[in-house]
């Protein structure tokens, strides 16, 4: 916008003297700044603080239970079987394929299994413990104040308002 107060009023500047002023420029020429009023408004400013929401205690406890495990154990048993008289007339007794002579003594070993129970600690489960952040959006209500200029003309006063875009800064 051209400021005509500093124009060459004598008409010595041919570019300015030859251009007739527009209606808007005439109004601006006649206006005298009386003052500037700042109108203010409130704005929300949100501050966030991190605080302890609680805690979780983690412990390992031992739970005991009695279990029964079936185990098959083998025991040898000596079986003595009487067979009637032999057709050949002999009373020969054989052990392990060799005959037992009268008065001779041999031993047979009889075995049995015994269970030995022992305990071992093994990993039965793995538990992963972690934290993650969950973001939630909350809406907070607030009443904000804003200043507006109220023009109350008294008497024969003409008031012309222009939107802020029309004013030159």
TrEMBL record:
Residues 37-151 form the DUF2382 domain. InterPro entries: DUF2382, Stress_Response_Assoc. Residues 1-24 are annotated as: Disordered. It comes from the Bacteria. Residues 1-11 have a biased composition (Basic and acidic residues). PANTHER family: STRESS RESPONSE PROTEIN YSNF. This is DUF2382 domain-containing protein. It comes from Deinococcus radiopugnans ATCC 19172.
